[in-house]
Design brief:
9 helices, two-stranded antiparallel sheet, Protocatechuate 4,5-dioxygenase, Chain B, eight-stranded mixed β-sheet, alpha/beta, about 280 residues
Length: about 280
């Protein structure tokens, strides 16, 4: 059976891709951010995941405002990366596993999620930058990309994204193949790229979100999307991807590492690492 070993939440700011390409790992501006992955690299070397379910948001590569699904899942054996015009180097394609994807899709539909199924899907910086941060050698595990609408309102609620993750987690643990699966949520944290509040960062709210995400994610579902925009910025709603990631961790969750650095290109950049420990069954008296 497949087993969920843990999860990572991290940012996907496009400028990180340029910094990686220019090898600015020890640059004074970038070092506090890149060093946050040292603990993640150690954990990955020990745990060696076979597959990653990636919760992220599309930036106009597959979907645009005229056609934008709330939830879309890739069901392909390969996901090609394309340049979005931001100077980000185009990476090699990410490997997929269509059979594993279809198993997750079937589980979601059985749980009453209406899913857009993509037998062809491109991946943008929301996927490739976090993968490259975690595997600098480019030897990525296979992925199942799950795209959440964080662009066109109405957006799914915090509670709905948490339940989406839980459904994905149940589907993973019922997959008969022996896979070690990691969950990834990418985006944010607080940031706003335009308008009167361009450059907005809310460290206090980011800290609260990270604190509660580990121990009590349900507490975060009290925030409506308008409240999330007010507290985290218009693009800070990418935290929905983190909520889904946390929901997919079906066991006892322990935070192993956290890094928070501001700003990276007007964004609060954070990285958290969770270990997913199986729940112990209580023996009958």
């Amino acid at each position: 059976m497949a087993r969920i070993i843990g999860g990572v939440g991290t940012t996907h700011v496009p400028s990180i891709g340029k910094a990686i390409a220019e090898k600015k790992y020890n640059d004074p501006y970038w070092r506090p951010f890149f060093s946050g992955f040292d603990a993640v690299h150690t954990w990955l070397a020990r745990e060696k995941p076979d597959a990653i379910v990636v919760f992220s948001n599309d930036h106009g590569l597959n979907f645009f405002l005229d056609k934008l699904p709330t939830f879309a899942v890739g069901a392909a054996n390969e996901y090609r990366n394309e340049d979005e015009g931001w100077g980000i180097p185009v990476s090699h394609a990410a490997r997929g596993d269509a059979a594993f994807s279809w198993h997750i899709i079937n589980g979601l539909v059985a749980d009453s999620f209406d899913i857009t199924m993509c037998q062809e899907m491109l991946v943008d910086h929301a996927v490739t930058i976090p993968l490259q941060l975690m595997w600098p050698d480019g030897n990525w595990p296979l992925i199942v990309p799950v795209s959440i609408n964080t662009v066109q309102h109405p957006l799914p609620s915090m509670a709905r994204c948490l339940e989406l993750g839980r459904s994905v987690g149940r589907a993973i643990t019922s997959y008969p193949q022996d896979l070690r699966v990691m969950i990834l949520g990418t985006g944010g944290l607080s940031h706003q790229l335009d308008g009167e509040r361009a450059g907005f960062i809310n460290k206090d709210f980011d800290t609260l979100c990270m604190d509660q995400l580990a121990t009590d994610p349900e507490a975060l579902t009290r925030y409506t999307i308008p409240q999330l925009v007010e507290l985290a910025g218009a693009q800070g709603v990418e935290f929905l991807n983190w909520m889904a990631m946390r929901g997919a961790l079906t066991g006892t969750v322990a935070e192993l590492h956290r890094n928070y650095h501001i700003p990276i290109s007007n964004t609060a950049a954070a990285t958290v690492l969770y270990e997913n420990r199986p729940r112990l069954l209580r023996r009958a008296a």
